Amino acid sequence: MTQTDRDLLPEGLEDRLPATAAVAARVTRAVLDAMDGHGYSRVQTPTIEFERSMASRMAGVQPRRMFRFVDPASLRMMAIRSDITVQVGRIAATGLAAAPRPLRLAYAGQVLTIKGDGLDPARERLQLGAELIGADSLAAAAEIVALAIEAVQAAGATGVSVDFTLPDLVDALAAEALPLAPEVIEAVRRELDAKDAGGLVAAGGAAYLPLLEAIGPFESAIERLAAFDKGGVLTGRIAALRAVAARVGTAARITLDPSERHGFEYQSWFGFTLYADGLRGALGRGGTYTILGQGGAAEPATGFSLYPDPLIDAIAASEPARDLLFLPLGHDTEIAGRLRAIGWRTVAALDAEDDPRRLGCTHRLDGQEAVRL
Amino acid sequence: MTQTDRDLLPEGLEDRLPATAAVAARVTRAVLDAMDGHGYSRVQTPTIEFERSMASRMAGVQPRRMFRFVDPASLRMMAIRSDITVQVGRIAATGLAAAPRPLRLAYAGQVLTIKGDGLDPARERLQLGAELIGADSLAAAAEIVALAIEAVQAAGATGVSVDFTLPDLVDALAAEALPLAPEVIEAVRRELDAKDAGGLVAAGGAAYLPLLEAIGPFESAIERLAAFDKGGVLTGRIAALRAVAARVGTAARITLDPSERHGFEYQSWFGFTLYADGLRGALGRGGTYTILGQGGAAEPATGFSLYPDPLIDAIAASEPARDLLFLPLGHDTEIAGRLRAIGWRTVAALDAEDDPRRLGCTHRLDGQEAVRL
Fold first, then answer.
1. How close, in Å, is residue B59 to chain A by CA atoms?
2. Are residues A20 and A68 in the same domain?
3. How far from B54 is each of B96, B236, B352, CA to CA, in Å?
4. Domain Class II Histidinyl-tRNA synthetase (HisRS)-like catalytic core spans what residues (chains A, B) (predicted)?
5. How many C-beta atoms surround the C-beta of residue A236 within 10 A?
6. Do A348 and B38 contact (CB within 8 A), yes or no?
7. Chain A contacts in chain B segment 235-264 (CB below 8 A)
């Protein structure tokens, strides 16, 4: 094939050809339908916004990761969205400020960053998610975790597992039971996150060493966390994690990694990461957090985001071709319409030369009947 | 409401709140499902591309209407897509160059322009469409027109009408039956498009005056066009229009405006515009055209694009609120799951204070039964 300059796509940007695009559409529908069933109403946000409104709404958004440019109309800086959560937060604080809480919203859309993420060179990704705004309680966390699992399973993920974390664990312990000098807190967090026992001791966090044991399958790890929590500072959090786990039940395997911080820097008491069989890396993550509400007041929220591109690719790779029914010239269009209404996909001949097999058809309409080719 | 700078959206960019977003999703699904049923496979294109590859692919794209910026990775100029048709043309010429023809592709996505269009200040619009690549025959035109009508009707449009045009009419007549000096052709086209009889005569196109009578309801207008076509230059085109009209049958009202050019500058022999009741302006347009195929060779194509935002707004404005079932604390989750499976939308109480009416619920789960509030 002659590949001219005109045909090149920029690094990290791709087309989805039919097999993958069909799966992407199905996965998106399945996730949105699951969220809709639980009362999460879809909202849609613009592809671009003023950079300032995206950057100032939530600490987790890094303006330097966004594509930015000057708006010829306003002469102000705009950016392509890199995260829809922030935009949903804006909607909750503006257009839906007066809507009753808790407010359940869902979204699906493409997000872009100027650089890929670690090993993944993709600069455009599909983001799907749900936000429960006005609540960050145990009940909110349990609903969101259960919904995230149901949504990814509806989308076709198998062997789903969830890893729970307690993002503000070190702050909570340092404030009461295991005091730390303010200047070492960040180092202790970092060494715990890195699971580096030596580094943790060197950083002055020897008292936190048992946390590195409270990692693994949920039931045993939470026992070790409870045993470590002699002062009872974590009693509420531990009870909450147990309740969320009970709500999940057998729907997914649960693990605990209480000191995991990476990706949860802006979450409050609870965070979780979703994994599924056959997918490298996380399928999504979520937790409790705070949005900038109406007039700048903080509003609690719980939610999750999925980045299902790897799941879509995995499903598409193992998907059989769809049936396709060839309609010869002069076919009965009413019969063809009835067959489409019961789920057949048809291709009508445009001229006598059209070859059903070459066009990928699996069946041919013969009178009133679909006959396998 | 305190409206801070942080909360402002740029001119021409909007959020879709739940009522409208739900309709947008339904309309998109209905159109894509109609296209899929007729063998049009969805493809997905990146939100941004190199400006050059979008601008050089098709004469109809105006680079100056696109948001443009430098890609920090390649240091080359990129643009946000303003038209997905061009991108689908690129896919047909690259990733699907070897796929058998005719190739049926469908798409849905957001497109952006730096300025709104005439009276409509929107700078972001939903574009849905189908392309039949490798054919621009009468059969191709008939399939595309019929599909466009079926798709918008599936989406909820009523009182659909289609206006046919012959974009290269003046060129065809000027080349044979009614010669025009090369320097007046453009003026004749313009005056015909403006339906200005005086201007047409002044421009030297007096012989073309009868075309201004061949406008209106299809059956009578096509008769007048045939009567005008004494030399028989248009015989093939007239027969083709009649055949396309016969295919449409009673599905939509048809009109003819053979010299309409606006918006069809890049179409070949056939163009059409779709209208529906209650919508100001066109719902979509389509026709036959040429794409830059593999290695730069021209490839014939037929297709249509819909811009359904006004239809979505009209449907949302008259839509009743959806039923919503409140699940009290301690409800039977299995029963709730079964009700969702048969189509109920549920909202679970997070605490005892949650008030079903305030949350917009229409029903409440009482034991196994949904009871109207």
1. 14
2. yes
3. 17, 34, 56
4. 12-311
5. 12
6. yes
7. none
